[in-house]
Q: What sequence folds into this?
């Protein structure tokens, strides 16, 4: 309903209470209702799933319509990100949130900072999703509150044109609530545990769940060594668990993102069950590093499989893990991806060791031969040294073209002396266009940075500490923070307003009328910021 329709509906409701609700103002109630558009996390999940599905269709029509997100470890970070996006770009179109399991482990666990190995409390993941959306909904409430105050001021001034302009903005208001792609790691246990956690995440508002094919009790960060994958059937059971959770909660178009770590994972904990030659278990086992044995020389405790009529002994480490043949990672990634898409996945995630468009595209070309509309979510990871990687890519391209590279040292291309060189500028150009190039060439629908706000928090704090505790003193804060906030129009320079002070004042007036004791009067120092 429109703003005016909600007011009229409230007037009818109030009027039907025989005067007992006579002190309730219909327009004030309508404002509170509009400021609380999403009543539950499931409302958010339904709304945002529809957005993602529309965006996926738009990308299929034109890969220039790729989507992006930044990982956020706190609701305030997500809120400020979306406020900034609306300020600079006018809308939130194709801009999402990413919830990183790495950042939950490092920043939000009651155990303190942890490595990304699924040791943090599983409940901290849905709790952060709920927190993200609490802050985004508050951003809506705050921005609408400013519009409502502007309407009141226009009415008092008799400015009908301004009143209509602001009413139109209310009617066409775009929420800060956007999709979140939420990391469920390897499911935190068996398929039932995955289902239970998936439900909590969806109920908190997640429309897209990202799950990886590592063993849950040996899970590693995608950019660490020692990753161990599971057979396809084990992983497919967890995909089905996520889909059942979506269906149970009425989110029929919920999105499942399946991540394969096989490119960097050389180990498996299990030998897959195979019932006949060529089935998915047999294909998984075909990558095992094996040696043919004579039954007569078999040793106690040997694990043996039959491969093409031969008895083969998979190489097993002292840890009990089995290893894959070297050089099979890309083939395993392709098989993982195709199998996932054929069994209910919506989007893929291939964790790579470097950001190289052609490497990614090579795998996606093979996947798309079988699944033509395959699309990737890609991690533009801070674990990559982007400067060094792309300078080396440009260096190698120059060598291939027969150009003179004698002034460059390939092993030391991070040196600042290369910043303004032809090579350095060409590398920066490739970094700048990486997302558009990857979307067009490599099927990347969604680009995300997993841990950016972890790094920005550290960098900005370091800069402030260096100045404030140094010779600059208070000027370090004023020059480095507050003056920039004012001049760049950062809304939270009025931190009282950002935290909800004005909303609370208006509510007090709704509830108590002229008797309300409000905080935002003439003596509030926030007024110094205009």
A:
């Amino acid at each position: 309903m429109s703003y005016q329709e909600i007011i009229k509906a409230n007037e009818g409701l109030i009027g039907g209470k025989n005067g007992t609700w006579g002190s309730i103002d219909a327009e004030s109630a309508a404002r509170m209702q509009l400021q609380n558009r999403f009543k539950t996390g499931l409302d958010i999940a339904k709304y945002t799933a529809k957005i993602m599905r529309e965006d996926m269709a738009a990308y299929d029509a034109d890969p220039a319509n790729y989507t992006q997100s930044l990982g956020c470890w706190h609701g305030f970070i997500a809120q400020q990100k979306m406020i900034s996006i609306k300020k600079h770009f006018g809308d939130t179109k194709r801009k999402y949130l990413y919830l990183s399991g790495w950042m939950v482990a490092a920043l939000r666990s009651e155990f303190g900072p942890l490595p990304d190995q699924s040791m943090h409390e599983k409940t901290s993941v849905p709790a952060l999703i709920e927190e993200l959306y609490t802050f985004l909904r508050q951003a809506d409430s705050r921005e609408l509150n400013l519009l409502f105050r502007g309407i009141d001021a226009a009415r008092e001034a008799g400015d009908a044109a301004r009143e209509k302009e602001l009413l139109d903005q209310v009617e066409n208001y775009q929420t800060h609530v956007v999709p979140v792609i939420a990391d469920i790691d390897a499911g935190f246990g068996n398929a039932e545990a995955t289902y239970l956690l998936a439900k909590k995440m969806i109920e908190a508002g997640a429309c897209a769940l990202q799950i990886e094919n590592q063993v849950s009790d040996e899970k590693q960060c995608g950019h660490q060594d020692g990753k161990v994958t599971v057979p396809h059937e084990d992983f497919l059971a967890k995909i089905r668990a996520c889909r059942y959770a979506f269906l149970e909660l009425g989110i029929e178009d919920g999105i499942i993102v399946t991540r394969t770590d096989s490119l960097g994972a050389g180990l498996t904990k299990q030998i897959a069950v195979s019932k006949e030659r060529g089935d998915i278990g047999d294909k998984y086992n075909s990558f095992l590093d094996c040696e043919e044995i004579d039954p007569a020389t078999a040793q106690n405790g040997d694990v043996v499989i039959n491969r093409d009529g031969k008895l083969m002994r998979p190489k097993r480490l002292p840890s009990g893990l089995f290893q894959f043949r070297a050089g099979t990672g890309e083939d395993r990634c392709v098989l993982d991806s195709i199998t996932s898409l054929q069994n209910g996945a919506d989007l893929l995630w291939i964790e790579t060791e470097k950001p190289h468009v052609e490497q990614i595209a090579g795998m996606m070309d093979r996947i798309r031969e079988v699944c033509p509309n395959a699309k990737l979510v890609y991690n533009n990871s801070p674990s990559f040294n982007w400067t060094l990687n792309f300078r080396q890519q440009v260096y190698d391209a120059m060598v291939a073209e027969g150009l003179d590279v004698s002034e460059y040292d390939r092993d030391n291309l991070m040196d600042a002396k290369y910043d303004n060189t032809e090579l350095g500028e060409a590398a920066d150009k490739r970094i700048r266009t990486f997302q558009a190039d990857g979307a067009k060439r490599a099927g990347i629908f969604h680009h995300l940075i997993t841990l950016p706000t972890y790094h920005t928090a550290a960098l900005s704090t370091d800069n402030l500490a260096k100045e404030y505790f140094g010779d600059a003193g208070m000027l370090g804060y004023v020059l480095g923070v507050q003056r920039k906030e004012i001049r760049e129009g950062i809304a939270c320079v009025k931190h009282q307003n950002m935290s909800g002070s004005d909303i609370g004042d208006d509510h007090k007036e709704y509830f108590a009328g002229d008797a309300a004791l409000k905080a935002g009067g003439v003596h509030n120092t926030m007024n110094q910021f205009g």
